[in-house]
Design goal:
By secondary structure, this protein is of the alpha/beta class. The protein is built from four helices and five strands, in the order βαβαβαββα.
Amino acid sequence: MGIVTVILSTHPHPPKEADMIIKHKVKHFRLDNVFDEVYATRPYPESKGEFMLKILKRRKIPKSQALMVGDSYIWDYEPATKVRIDALLIRSDYMHEHGAVKSIKNTIKKLSDIFTHI
């Protein structure tokens, strides 16, 4: 389908250790063939937006062709929308963190709902 899939997971450990931990988890759950790239982002919300922009630039993908899917408003949805990347928030208990419900425009119940959005 020509879709590039990337995991960006916020992790508090030092960068090299954090990358190793998240890559180990992906391999443990046998998801390494599902994702093109896997990264641990730094423990500040803007880090994900910075990573997204770097990946898009390197792969020469316009922001209009990108989509962030996450379960946290503060760590996933907001960083994407701040750098003008479309985002979907998976409905969960995290959705109500920091009173952000009013600014959430796109939500899904399960990952397969992504296809109705794109």
